Each structure stands twice: as structure tokens, then as C-alpha cells.
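Fold this sequence, please.
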Amino acid sequence: MRGIYKILRVSIIIAIFIQAFELLLNFNEPIVVQKELRDLAIHFVFAFTLTFVNGYFFDKINEYFSWEQQPQKRLWYGAIGSIIITMATLAILRFVLVVLFFGRTWAHFVATERVTYYVIGFIITLFFSVFFHAFYFYKELQKQKITEQKIIADTASAKFTALKNQLDPHFLFNSLNVLTSLIEENPMMAQKFTTSLSKVYRYVLEQKNKELVTVDEELKFAKTYMTLVKLRFEDSIIFEMPEKSANPDAKVVPLSLQILLENTVKHNVVTSKRPLHIKIYEEGNMLIVENNLQPKEVIKERSGVGLGNIKQRYGLLTKREFAIYKTDKSFIAKLPILTKQIKTTEKMTITDNIAEAKEIKYNRAKERVKKMKEFYGSLTAYCIVIPFLIFINYKTTGFDIPWVIFPALGWGIGLFFNYAEAFDKHPFLGKNWEKRKIQQYMNESNPND
């Protein structure tokens, strides 16, 4: 129903426009109201029928050829089919008008029909069909690109959430393993471990929905976690770490230190005779966890959940990589410290960064599509108005005073710059100049980010 109302509105506008155009062509002739109303009604019937038929044709062809899957076939079959449908419908409408409305015979209709009656309709249909099909072809391509970018962003966000949720069972499983061992070895120590574990797990629950936490928070948590570890191993572990980070704004992914510390204890021999030395320190823009290498001789094949989790989470947030190194005497893990702030007036978590990046991309794409629509609207108006002004110029002065050059040239220049802005093709600065300059200034920001 809404489609019919839209066709009615468009048909009324087209009919009024054609009627006004005919009045301007015959401005020297007297106006007969009854005749003009009759012609207006005829124009409306033609406009409504042609619009309805083409709309129905487009709906049907969309069922067979989609813009997403077969854009070129949709473009050419739609344009050519629209021309054929329009010409056939125009012939039927003229037959109805001449034979049924004006009461002429079939022979009279055939004898009086002229090719010129259809040439103008063919040219107009060809122009608008190719123009609008090209426009919607490009629009669908842009829409597809926007959809692909949104899917990529949403997939990354969902993947990140899955990785974060993976930490809970992983941490709990390993903690319960430690607790089980303590219950067998030292029940009193197990009770203290249980109390401390509740505090540690509270931190896990608080940080699980964050993509970044400050290094200071992680250091504080690492200290609490190592207190739990020492309840089991006592003096068999020597642990060193700074009280605070050199940069209060420095951030890492949450629970990364806990995973590295847990990994260190799990895969190394820890005894009073062979104590495990663990050291946390900052070096440049990296937070480093280093331990002396004394691997266990027999160990189950590791699943790699912890280290893989850290690597994947960093991979979704930054191009800087989480790295691990092994020497003859030590095992070293390096966590990239992230300090870049998108906003200067407030601190943002990576959740905000991802959401804002998605919003920025969407708004930029939306603004680009808006500019393209404005350009095509201006181009359509130009192609309609300028030929009309040329005709008026010819009728009034016979081109003795070619005043139509001025609006055509002025409007054309404006249209050219409108095109350059809509498609980012600056005549003097080259294509994608704006994008290149933005990237340049972004690269000139803090190199440590």
C-alpha cells in the first residue's frame, strides 16, 4: 500500500512537470482550462502506468538477480528490460488513448503513429534507466562494503568476548587443582588459600568485562596471586616486582600477569633446593615476566589456552605482538604496554575504542553515501533544468544572446566540485588525498602506541 502511495506522489509530480513544460513550450497560445486539465489527466495516467509497470518489473527482476550476488546482470538486464517494458507500455497507452479515449479506428491509429512519438520517450527512459541503475549499482556496492566492515567489527568484538569468557573456567579450573593439592598436603593452608582465593576471584569477575586494565592494577593483583602461590610453595619461589608502573596510564590486557605467573609455576620445577626466581619489570614499552628455566621432566601436553588467549586478545586490540622467548637459562614473556588514548579529555577502555571506531566508520560511510545522493540529485536536476533553459534561450533569443552559458557553466563547476567531494577525487590533490593525510597525521602520533 505504501508503494502505491509513493507511485501516486511520483506520478502527480511527473504529470505536473510535463504539463508545465508543455505550457512553456506553447506560451504564446491561449490557455484553455478544460483542455489543460484533460492533458494533465492523460499525463498522470501515462506517468502512473509507466512507473507502476517499471516498479513491478524491478521487483520481479530483483528476485532473479540480486545486487549483492549478480550486480552486473542486475544492472544490464534491469536497464535494457526497463527500456523494452517502457516502449511496449507506451505503445499500449497510446493505443488506448487514440482508439478507446478519442474514438479513432485501428487503421487510423496505425496510419497516424510516428516514430518521433516514441523517440523522445525512448531517450528519456534510456537516460533515467541507465542513470538510476548505475546509481543503485554503486549504492549497493557501498552498502555491501559497509556491511562487510560491520561484520568484521562485530566478529572481532564477539571473538574478543569469547576469549574473555574463556578466562573464567580456565582460571577456576587451575585454582581448584591447586586447592585440591593443598587439601591433601596441608588442610590448614588450604583454608587460608580458600579465603584468599575468594578475593582473587572477585578481581577476576570485576576485570572480565574490560579489555584493558592499568599496569598498576595488574601488579597489585599479581602480588595477591603470588601470595596464594607462596602459601603452597613457601620459600621455594622468589618473586620480585615493582610497586607501581613508571607510567600511571600504562595498560595491559586483564589477567595477563596471572596467566604468565601460573604458566611459570606449572611448567617449572619448584623446590626449596631449586627455587623458582620470577621477576616482573618494565623495559621500554613492554612489561616483562622473566623466570629461570628449570622445566619439569614429565608434564602433560599443554593445551596452550593461557598464552594463546593473551596473544589473541592483543591481536584484536593492537598490531604490537605479545612475545615469548626462551634462552638456555631463562624464559621471558613480553606484554606490550598500551598507552594510546583516542580521546584527550577522558580515558577510554578498548571497548569504547572498538565501539567508537565502528561508529566512526559507519558515520563516515553514511556521510559519504549522503554526499553521493546529493551529487546524483544535483546531476539529475542539472540534466533536466539546463536542457530546458537551452530550449527557452533558443525560443526567446535564438541564441543571439547565449545567456544559458552562464548558469550551465556556473552550475557545472559547482557540480564538478560536488563530485570531487562525494567521491574523494580532488582535481589538484589526487584521489584519496583526505584519507592519506589522515593516515599520515595518525602515523605521526606517539610511536610507542
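Residues 341-350, 445-449 have pLDDT under 50 and may be disordered. Residues 348-449 form one domain.
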